[in-house]
Amino acid sequence: MIPGAFEYLRPKTLSDAIAMLATHGDEARPLAGGHSLIPMMKQRLASPSHLVDLAAIADLAVLREEPDGLVIGAMVTQRALLGSALVQVKAPLLIEAAQQIADPQIRALGTLGGNVANGDPGNDMPAVMMCLDATYMVQGPKGARQIKAREFYRGAYDTALAAGEIVTAIQVPVVAGQGVAYEKLKRKVGDYAVAAAAVALTLRSGEVTSCAIGLTNVAPTPLWAKDAAALLVGTRLEADAVKKAVAAAEAITDPAADGRGPADYRRKMAGIMLARALARAQQRAA
Amino acid sequence: MNDMTPTREAREARLEGMGCKRKRVEDVRFTQGRGTYVDDIKLPAMLYGDMVRSSYAHARIRKIDTSKAEKVPGVVAVITAETLKTVNLAWMPTLAGDVQMVLADGKVLFQNQEIAFVVATSLQAAADGVELVEADYEELPVIVDPFKAMAADAPVLREDLAGKTEGAHGKRDHHNHIFKWQVGDKSLTDEAFNRAEVKIDELLSYHRTHPSPLETCQCLASFDKIKGELTLWGTFQAPHVIRTVVSLISKLPEHKIHVIAPDVGGGFGNKVGAYAGYVCAVVASIVTGRPVKWVEDRMENLSTTSFARDYHMRTEIAATRDGKVTGLRVHILADHGAFDACADPSKWPAGFSNIITGSYDFPVAHLCVDGVYTNKAPGGVAYRCSFRVTEAAYAIERGMDILAQKLGMDPAELRLKNFIRREQFPYQSALGWEYDSGDYATALNKAMAAVDYAGLRAEQKTRREAFKRGETRSIMGIGVCFFTEIVGAGPSKNCDILGLAMFDSCEIRIHPTGSAIARVGTKSTGQGHETTWAQIIASEIGIAASDIMVEEGNTDTAPYGLGTYGSRSTPVAGAAIAMAARKIRAKAQMIAAWLLEVHEDDLTFDIDRFQVKGVPERFKTMTDIAWVAYHAPPPGMEPGLEAVSYYDPPNMTYPFGAYICVMDIDVDTGVAKTRRFYALDDCGTRINPMIIEGQVHGGLTEAFAISMGQEIRYDDMGNVMGASFMDFFLPTAVETPHWETGHTVTPSPHHPIGAKGVGESPNVGGVPAFSNAVNDAFSFLGSTHIQMPHDAWRLWKAAEKLGVTG
Amino acid sequence: MAKINVTMTVNGEEVSGLAEPRTLLVHFIRETLNLTGTHIGCETSHCGACTIDLDGVSVKSCTRFAVQAEGAQIRTIEGMAEANGTLHQLQESFRQMHGLQCGYCTPGMILRAWRLLQENPHPSEDDIRQGIAGNLCRCTGYQNIVKAIQHAAATLNGETIAEAAQ
Known about the structure:
The complex is a heterotrimer. Helix content of chain A is 34%, strand content 27%. Chain A is built from eleven helices and 14 strands. A five-stranded antiparallel β-sheet of chain A has the order 4-5-10-6-7. In chain A, strands 11-12-13-14 form a four-stranded antiparallel β-sheet, with helices on both faces. Chain A has a three-stranded parallel β-sheet with strand order 1-3-2, with helices on one face. Chain B is an alpha+beta fold. In chain B, 28% of the residues lie in helices and 26% in strands. Chain B contains 19 helices and 37 strands. In chain B, strands 3-7-1-16-13-14-15 form a seven-stranded mixed β-sheet, sandwiched between helices. Chain B is globular, with a radius of gyration of 28 Å. Chain C is an alpha+beta fold. Chain C folds into two domains: 4-79, Beta-grasp domain (Ubiquitin-like (UB roll), Roll), CATH 3.10.20.30; 89-156, [2Fe-2S]-binding domain (DNA polymerase, domain 1). Chain C has five helices and five strands; from the N terminus they run ββαβββαααα. The chains are: A alpha+beta, B alpha+beta, C alpha+beta. The interface between A and C is medium-sized, with 29 and 28 residues.
C-alpha cells in the first residue's frame, strides 16, 4: 500500500494555496488531516500529481466567536474542538459528534474542514452542520463565497465546491437554550455510522418552537430532514408526533447495503437514532 | 557453600519454576521496541517483492503483460507462472494432499489470487510495478455458495483435476468434490434415531473468518549462489516443516537451507501454511542473486492467506424424554475454497472434528464430512483452536442447547445429566477418541456457583415477563458452554504432516557454571515460551529459570520439531522438555552420588540439589554438579551435561472448561452487550498462571469477535467484502467485555508434568458460549437457532422475524 | 521523483534523511532512521501499531508523509527508556501486569498510553479504554493492558496498587 508519486507543496498563505491549486488543476488536491485522502492514495484510488498541504496556513486554524456565531477554521482538528471550552459552551453538538469520530490518534490530525468538505457520506460533521444550519466559508480562484451546509452536498464525494475551491472556515450559529444530541450507531470504535442522527431543538413551556435534524450515512449524501423536523414544531414530542417525524425521516433515507447491514435495517436505525436523539435533546433544552 | 542455608521456600522461590507467576523474559525487549520481527531485518542490496493479484474470482487468463512494469525505474524482475515453470514451481503441494498454484497458471480461482511477483529496489518501485502489470481476463461463472458446488451443472473449478476420481482422501463424487470422510457406526446411529423419543435437527453454520494476527505474513529470502545456501527468515509457526517443504519443492538439499523464525507478531494458525509469497521470494532471490523481502499488506492477509471455519453442520441429536442423549448424527459441508490447503495432520481431512461428541456420553454417533471447492481463498487453518475442534464444539454445544429447549430442560441441567462421569476416564468416545481425564461436573458446578446461575435464571424470568408487558425493549440471554478440547497433536500412530510424525523436541545444555540453554522445536508467537519452558526445566532440574536461556525458531540450532499450533506446544514439546531435563537429572544424580560417596538410591532430589536421604546437610547443588561434569567427571563417565529428547506422546490431551456468558440485547437496534463472562478452564497442571490467564483473556476476545461479527464475506461475484480493519471486526478496548476467570486442575495422566495446553480453549469454548447467550435471549420468543455472526443487523433481523421490533 | 531532505527531532536528537514526498512517516522512521520498534499492522490507520508521539499528540505514522513531519518533535518507543537502560514506568508496568504477549502492538500501545497519562494522570478505566481505542491488540483482550496503564498511573502518582496481574 504505497501511494503513487506526487509533488508536495506547503504554502504559508491561503492565497498561495489557492494559486497552487489553480496552477495544477484537477491533478492537485488539498491535504488537511489526510485520514481520508492518504488511505485512498495508498490504494491508488486517488493519485494526485500535487498535494497542497494546508497545515502551515495560520488563518485556517482560527477558532473564535463572532456576532454570527462560532467561526472555526478548516484546519482545526477534532481534538482541538474537543479541548475548546468555547465550543463546549456554545456548540456542544460539535463536541458530542467529535467524540464519536474515529479514535484519539485520528482525532488528533483529522480536521473539521476535511470532515465537512470531502463529501464522504460516512463523515459525521456534515449532518451536524446541516442540523445547525452552518455556513461554509469558501475560497477559490474567483474569490471568496459562502455556501450553506444544507446546500453543499450533491452526491457521494460530490459537493458544491468549484474547481480549485477549498473550505476555509465553518460558521456555526449559536442558539441560546437549544437542546442538542447526536446519536450514532456503529459497529465499533473507528467505524462509520450504521446510522446517526443529529437533533437541535428549542422548547417553550415544553412545546417545540424550532427543530432541525441531520442524518449521517443513510444516503449518498448527509441528509437534512427538513420535513421530519417541521412535523415536530408545535408538538410536545408526544410519542405519536415522534413516530410521524421518524417515518418522515426514514422516508428520505436511501442507505447502501454493506457490512453495516442491509438497507431496511439502516433505514430503521436512522429512525431509532432520531427518536433517541430527540428524547435527549428534549431533556437538554432549556 | 554448605553453611549458607537458605530456607526451602527461599530456594524454591529463587527457581521461579512451575506454578510461579513468573514475569516474562520476552517483555524486556518487546516493551522497548527491541524485538526483531521479520520486517525489522534488512540485508545489503535487499530487494522488495510485491504481489499482483486477480480482480476476478474465476476467470481464464489470456495474457499477462509485464512489459510496462519491467520498465519502471527500480524494478528488477517480474515473475509469473512462466518463470516458475522453469524451476518447476508454478504449482506446489498443499498440506492436505492437494496441489495449488503459486502464481496463476492459465486461470484464477479466487479474488486476489497471486498472478505475478514484482521485485524492485524499493517498496515504492515495487508498488509502481504492480500497478502496471496487465492481465487479460475472460470471466467464468463463480461458485460462492458451497451448497451449490456439487450441483450437476456447477461450473468446473479445478480443470487440473479433470478425470481424477480419487483424491488424497478417497473417492471424489463430483468435479468440485474434494473428499468424503466418515467416522462412527452409521447403522447403529440410524437405529438410535429410529428409536428416539426426542430428536433435534438443525443446520448450524460456522461462518468463514480469519486469524489476522497483527503482524501479517512475511519473509526474507537470501540465496547465496557461491555456497548454494538459502537463508529464509519468516513468520513461521513451524520453521522446521517449512525447511523440509522448501527442500522438497525446491530440490535444494535440506542442510543448505537455513530457516529462521525470529520474533513473530501473533500467529493464531495464520502462520502455519506455506504461501505463494514465500515461494516467490525464494525464487526471486535465486533468480536475482539478491535478498528479497516479501511483506503482505492487511488486505492481502485477510483475503488470501488462510481463512478459518466455513463449516456448515447439520446436527441431529437423539434423546430420551427425560433428557438422556442416545445418539448423535452430523453431516458437515466443508467449504475449502479453491485449493484444499487445510492445515491438518495428513490423515485428517476434516481435522479432529470427530471430537464432536463433546463432553457427553453418547452411546453411538456418526459423522460424515464432504469437502468442496468454491471460488474462495484456500486455507482452512485452525484459528486458535486444534484442528476443526472449535467447529465441532460449536455444533455440539449449540445442539445441546437446542435439545434442552425442546425438552423444556435447563441447559446446564441437561449437560450435567449427560456428562462423561469422572470414573469413566479414560473414556472411549463413540467416534474413536480416548479421553485421558476429566472432572466435568465439578467444573460446571463451580462455574454455576461463581455466577449465581440460579439467580441469573430468576432474573431472566422476571425480565422476560417485563418484556412481554412492554416495559423493556431489552432481552437477557444466559449462555452456557461446556467444551472438551483435543489438543497436542500428536501421537505418531495417528498424526503426521507430509509424513513427518508429529513429535516435538528439546535439547538442554548445562554450562559449566551452572546456567543453561534449552532449544526447542516449537515457536512462540506470543505465548511466552522463553519464560515458561525455562520454568519447566527449573522445576525439573533445580536451576533457576533466570539462568536458563530458551531458544526457538532457528532450524540450524533447534532440534527438529513440528512447531506451535493446535495447542500442541505444552502437551508435546512441554513433555519433551521435561523428559530432556530428567535425562540431565539422572546424570546429575550419578555425579552427585560419586561426589558424596553414596549409592544413587541413597540420594533424594530436593528443589535444587541432591541430598543424602535423612542427612539433608550432605548435598550437592546442580551448580556444584555442573562444574564437576565439565571439570572432573566421575571416572568412566563422559564429560558434559546435556540431553536431547524427542517426545512422541502416547495420546492427545483433553483440556476442558465451563463458560457462562450473560448478555443483554436491545431488540430495537440488535445491539448486544455482554454483561458478564465467566470462564473456568481446566488445563491440567498450570505452568504459569499469569500467562494462562493472559491466554484465556486473548482467546475469549477472539471468540467474542468471531461470534459477534467477525467474518470474511463474499458477494455473488466472489468479491471479498470488507478485507480491511474497518469492516473485519477486531474489537477495541471499548467493545471488549471484562473477563472473569477460574480454574480446576485435573492433570493429564500420561503427560510427564500433567499439563494439557490452554491457548486455544477460550476460542473453542467462547464462541458457543456467546452464541448460546444470544440464542437463549431469543428462545422465549419461539426462536430455535440464529446463525452466527451475531452482529447487530442480524440480531435485529432475527427480532424482526419474531415480530418484536418496533 | 526527487527526494527531499527532511529534518526532525526524534527522541531528543535532531535527525535528517532523504525521502520521496510519498514516503510514509512510518517508513522513514523504520527504513531511514532504522528505528524498527514502530510497527506496521494494517496501513489503513485502524490498528495503531505505528503510533508515535508527534508534537504533543499521538499520531498513526502510517497515515502521514515524512515530509509533513519536517521540523517536528517525535518520540518513538526507542525514546521511552532512560539512557542508562532503566525502563519507563509504563514499560515496567506492562511487564508486571502481563500487558503484552506477541509484543507487536506494544510500542504503539505504550506510546499512546504515555500521551494519555500526560493529558490525564488519573484516568478511570473507561478513560483508558476510550484512550487506547485506536490501538488494536490481538493477544491480550486488553484487560491486562488496562491494568498495566492503571498500575503505571498509580505508580507515577506515588500511589501503591495492591492488585497484581494474577
